[in-house]
Amino acid sequence: MQWWKEKVVYQIYPRSFQDSNGDGFGDIPGIILRLDKIKALGAGIIWLSPLYPSPDADNGYDISNYLGIDPKYGTMEDMENLIKEASKRDIRIIMDLVINHTSDEHEWFQKSRKRDPEYADYYIWRPAKPDGGKPNNWTGFFMEDAWTWDEKRGEYYLHLFHRKQPDLNYHNPKVIEEVKKILKFWLDKGIAGFRCDVINVLYKESLADGKPRLVVRGLEHYKTREGTHRILNELRTEVLEKYDCFTVGESAMVDLPEAKLLCDANRRELDMLFYFDHLEVDRCVAKYISKAFRAKKFLEIITKWQQGLEWNAIYLENHDQPRIVSHYGDGMGKYHARSAKMLSVLEFTIKGTPYVYQGQEIGMTNFDFTDLSQLNDVESLNIDKLMQKFKIPKNLRWKWIKESSRDNARTPVQWDATNNGGFSDEKPWLPVNSNYKKINYAIQEKDSESILNFYRKMIEFRAQSDILLEGEFTPLWANKKALAYKRTLKERSLTVILNFGHRPVKCPHEGEIKLSNIGRVRLNGTLAPYEAVII
Ligand code: ISL
Fold it and tell me: What domains lie within the chain, and their CATH numbers?
């Protein structure tokens, strides 16, 4: 089994992880200070969200230099030190690779605007239509038009995200060569792989008008096209395979047939993929509007991906998603800890590489902001503007944004009960959730029954179980709020039963309990609220 299948990944969103120099921003020396905690959790890989120089139109996902470190996070020496310190603890590091777009402040874009012959075709430039209109009707992921006029060049450029994130032109072989240089640069520094941002939209096959859709109009012209498969194969065979590394792609609106192509080992493209289906069981209009959670539907989705792909990237949270305990758990309710533990049983008992997002292991909850003005997330701010156009009343807009905002996951990590949750001595860039005195690392480290200690136990349990690492996944049953599945290796199996609801449910199983989130020793026909058992 490849090493990246056995290990657990810990995602760090650097600006909210640990500030070491009192500027309100997390930084690399801060990460080094906390490495022992990640080790104690049992994670063996760290994924770092972008640390590259960036004007921060999208919190670092707009990169102005791929071969540098943004001074607010530290220096290249700090980065090298982090790789070394992590390695001492047997932890490997993967970087975020954001290559669909750069920042408009990247040197390439600056030269491209001026039609510098070397860079003129690095981006997707088009003249205005004869009537002055935009080149096509596409809209982007941040609910804006996908084209912006550039005065200097006298043309429109395409951006699927923010207007400060122009899309690179993958019809230009020079762009692919640049990406190879970036990969080599970091791999030579000892990086163990990449999380590849929106990787299935790189290649724009045509720029024809898109079919009518509310958001991302034009998607059918660039989602998982043949050109993208070709580029991924080229990067893999010419660069990545020469190193001991792996890739996890992040995909926009990918379906199973597309994912199968992207992850098929024989095609040599990606090693695994993040998709969103399983987090949208209770959402409609992508993720913005909520509906009831149905365990039956959830199990169907899990089963589809578990049985459809050889290997999955398992995650319940990241920097774009609400906190899982507030989403599928009981939030700050009386079952906060129990539901967080139940969700960890899910995460570590399905087949794939688990990704834990910073703070998930202590059950951090959604933010408790009270007003839109406190938000930073460009996506939330834009969706509010769009909803205003549709005359959606303010209280409803706030309700939906509160549930879906990416800032839910971006508040600083709650380390202890001191000022700013031990994250920083100064005012943090985004406020600390006011529940930090109740939910923090220091308290949970001392409490053997804490969520944190349960996570450690689950990670260890998975590491010791060949059934959980390699076994086949079979769904057993589900009703509105509870579900069960089995993992089988040869003649041995483990059955996992999870209750996602506030009420007890019938549980038709018998057997020796291997693990329980409420300390149960015997099954008696019912499962308690938010209970999880492995038998
Ligand atoms: O958040 C989303 C789905 O819940 C998305 O639409 C998200 O914007 C998309 O999945 C792409 O995300 C990635 O690329 C973006 C960046 O803003 C996100 O933070 C990143 O994870 C653009 O680089």
Answer: 7-97+173-373+408-462 (3.20.20.80), 472-534 (2.60.40.1180)
